[in-house]
Each structure stands twice: as C-alpha cells, then as structure tokens.
C-alpha cells in the first residue's frame, strides 16, 4: 500500500487543483485579514481572527469536495484504477491509500488555514480573543470534522463511477453541510427570553411576560419542543455545525459523533467499492 | 503444454443478461491467443474477470497456476499487464509521466527503462506533449507501454485496434509480434476484426453467447480452412454438369462463380466446358478466410 500512497501523493501534487485551493483559501482568509487591517475604521476595535478561521473552514468543505472528487474522478474517467487492480492490488489497499492521499491534501489545507489565520491574525488583528479552551476545542473538532468529511468525499469519489456526477454530488453535499451548519446554529442561537428593554414600547403588548421575571419576555421566534430536538440532532450529526458553535460554547461539542461518522463512512465506502464492478 | 491462463465454467450475469455461460478456455505459454467473437459475445467480460475488475458468479480460473479464489491471485496479477477497452492513461500527463506514475504504482525503485519502453512503442519523441493531444494510435501504444511497465509475462489486450487507422493497425500488430517473439510475452488479444487477428495469432478461441465454441492452433485452423480454386465461367450450370461428371466437389457461389475443391486439372475442365459452349474466364486459388470459418462455427446471426 505504501507504493500506492507514494504514487498517489506524487500525482496529487502534480495537479494544479491543490494549489488553486490554497490560493482560494488565502483569498478567503488571509486576504480578508489584510483588508480588515488596512481598511479598519479609526477608533473601532479589531475583531479576533476566529471568524476568519471559521470562514476558512467553511470554504475548505467546498474545496475539499472539489479537490477529492476531481482527483478520484479522473481515476474513473481515465480508467487508471484498472492499472492498479490488474497489477494485483486489492481494493482495500486502493481505497485506503486513496483516502490517505486525499487526507494528506486536506490536512495541508487545514494546516494552511490555521497557520495563515494565526500568523496574520497575530500580526494584524492582535491575536485570538477566545480562551485556550475554545481554541483547543476548535482544533480537535475541526480536525475530526475534516477527517470525516474526507471519508465522505472519498466515498463519493470512488463509489460514483462518473467524474462529473461524483463532483456535482460532492459539491451539493458540501453546500448542504455548510448551509445546514449555518442554519442550525442560527436557529439554536435564538434566545428563549428577551429583555423588555430590547423591545419597542409599541410592540411590547404582543409579547408574553416570563412568569416570575417581569424584566423578560418570551421570544416568539424561539425554536422549542420536538422541532428543537430535531434541529439538535441535525446539529450534532453535522461536525461543521458543531464547529460554528464552539466559539460561543466550547462545551457544546460532541467529538464522538464525527469520530463515529468517520468509521461508518470509511467502512461503508470500502464495502461499496469492494462489491461494485469497475468499468 | 504449459498454460498461463485456464478458465473453467466461468459464469457472469448482469441482471437478466448472461454474459458468460460456463466459459472454458486455455491460453498456452508463449502464444498470441486470438479471442474471437462478435460484440456482446463475452470477450470483454472474460478479460474483466481475469483482471479482477469483476468477480465471476460461478466457475473459476487459474492465472499462472493460481486459482482466482486463492489469496495468491493478487501476486499472479503482478505478472500481467492489461488494456481493457480503452487505454488506461492519464490524459493530463505526458507519455513519460504516465510511465513514471505506473512505475510508482508498481514500486519500482528507479525510472530505469522508461526511455526504452517509449522507444519500443514509438513514443520517444513526444516530449512534453500531453496524452490528451495524442492520436488514438499513440494513446493505444502508450496504454501498451503502461501495461509493459511491470515486465509482464502475460499481456491482455481488449480490442487494441478498434478505431485505429491502417497505419496505426500495422504499428500495433508489429508491436504485438515483437513483444511476443523478442520478449517472449504471452498475449491474449480479443478482437472482432478477424483478418487482422489472423495475421498475428498463434492460437484461437472462438466465443459465442458466452461460451468458447472452439479452441485451436493457427496450424489447425489453416488445415480447417480448406483451399479451393475459384472458377469464373460464362455458364455456371454447364460447369456444374462438368464437375458432376468428373466427380469433383464444388460449391456454386453465384451465377458465374463456383469454388472447386481438391486438385482439379484445369485443362480437362476447360476441354469439357467447350462441349457445352461455356468459356472459363478466370481461375485463382482461394482460401476460406478466418471470417468464413468463424461464420461457419457460430452462424451469421445478427448481434443481440
């Protein structure tokens, strides 16, 4: 399998796609930090770089999908998977080596996002504002999240035989993951109660007072009951969603779920890849 | 005889379609084995099974003496190179990079021999030209070079001359003959272009409806394909009467032509034809082609 990994890594870094992905990540993270620093409003305090870290991670979801499915899809498109199977590699080795190669590429993007945000953030924005606990939680969760996402996109790239179909499916999945993450975090962040002073006097009669607390009113937009339970399940299942929540609540993470997702996706991908006839 | 590949009652179904129905065949060591059959006969399915791209539903095969159910089959496949349907090459890479990539896959310590391989397949001067800009023949030759990277003892080529121009066909044919004779590589080559196959195959396997209907050597085939003399006359009925009188076996092919078997004395036939006022226009020796032999074996039915 080492030979396959070595060959895969060489091919991955021969492709322009990974360098384009890194350039896009720079424009999304690094360039924005520089812009924020250069065009800051006088007297206004600078934000911490955490936001750029999270937006870099969100961009990475889409870029990982594109990179992995184009890398693996071309194996199907050119029929070069046959060259590996017909010279005696078993499908497990081919699948797992491809996973490791793609994971190496994703890790490079991941380290790039961290390094760029940390270096430029320290130089231009005065460093992270969050506690070490939040940063460590972000690090652990993002690491696990991207491992699980790599397993998902590798499964799509190797088990869907058409490069274009695989790429489109992965990009759609990436968008669904990102939009779900943003959507669930927004819905779950809506407070249950609002302070009276935040409500305009004319609108106040429409709000229900919190029993025993005359200074607060019940927020009608608050999502509760079974709907909240469903959203919480979706939130827990989506590591990107958890990732967005960490800066607000470092204890809200559940690392077991992305770890379980990784194992399930890897196993499912290998089983499908082993069973399917190859073109 | 030593066999490199032996299959026994291989079966493969795709939903309702049975591609292989108990296929049994034997590829001798050192042969250029022509695998002949019409489209949909099961040629590519068999090649896919051998290469490990698909698994048989039942039956088994032995590659270099190792059964497909044994763990050692992966090791046996290292002694094989294959092109299945289309050449498996990275179109966004040069010929040299494609070979380097396959060397890496095979774990070869250095890139020694790449220029010799490119020279062998006639792609030495392609430089930085990417494979996507190659002609079909060049891609096919690059595919063969990739298949040769592991110094295989068996080369499996699925329809290698499909879509090639006459020059490309000649180049591929010469390359296959060279590999077989100089490098002693056994070649399994599937094709439905029979005349072309007859120029290089040393053994044949005729496949129809997922079964091998006949296996034979080129010598045996030559014996089976009877030679005859094709006569063109002004009155084929008169010719038939003369040949009947002489007790010579023949087959009337159209209003003016008949194939005459055996060793007829043409001067005698001409003399007798004169009596019926019939003239002999032409006479030439004619071989029954591989094509007509194949048709006689499997029938001339339409494709399914």
Topology:
The complex is a heterodimer of chains A (279) and B (304).
Chain A: H1 2-14, H2 17-38, H3 50-78, H4 81-85, H5 91-124, H6 132-159, H7 163-189, E1 193-195, E2 209-210, E3 213-218, H8 225-237, H9 239-245, H10 256-275
Antiparallel strand pairs in A: 1-3, 2-3
Chain B: E1 3-14, E2 17-28, E3 32-36, H1 43-51, E4 58-63, E5 66-67, H2 73-77, E6 80-83, H3 95-106, H4 114-120, H5 136-148, E7 154-158, H6 166-182, E8 186-191, H7 194-198, E9 203-208, E10 211-217, H8 218-224, E11 227-233, H9 236-246, E12 250-252, E13 257-261, H10 266-275, E14 280-287, H11 290-298
Parallel strand pairs in B: 3-8, 3-9, 6-7, 7-8
Antiparallel strand pairs in B: 1-2, 1-4, 4-5, 9-10, 11-13, 11-14, 12-13
Helix pairs in contact in B: 5-6
Describe the structure.
The complex is a heterodimer of chains A (279) and B (304). Chain A has 279 residues and is mainly α. Helix content of chain A is 71%, strand content 4%. Chain A is built from ten helices and three strands. The mean pLDDT of chain A is 84. Chain B is α/β, with parallel strands linked by helices and 304 residues long. In chain B, the strands form three sheets. A six-stranded mixed sheet of chain B has the order 6-7-8-3-9-10, sandwiched between helices. Chain B starts with a strand and ends in a 6-residue tail after the last helix. Classes of the chains: A mainly alpha (279), B alpha/beta (304). Chain A binds chain B through residues 2-4, 6-7, 10-11, 14-15, 74, 78-90, 277-279, and chain B through 48, 51-54, 73-78, 80-82, 84-93, 97, 101-102, 104-107, 146-147, 150, 156.
Sheet with the most strands of chain A?
3 strands, antiparallel
Anisotropy-based shape of chain B: elongated
Secondary structure category of chain B: alpha/beta
Q: Strand arrangement, largest sheet of chain A?
A: 1-3-2
**Tally of strands of chain A:** 3
- What level of helicity do the residues of chain A show? over 70%
**Average pLDDT reading of chain A:** 84
Instruction: Give the N-to-C terminal Cα separation of chain A.
Output: 22 Å
| Overall outline of chain A | globular
- The overall pLDDT of chain B, averaged over residues, is 85
**Major protein interface:** A-B, 26 and 35 residues
Order of helices and strands of chain B: EEEHEEHEHHHEHEHEEHEHEEHEH
Report Rg of chain B: 24 Å
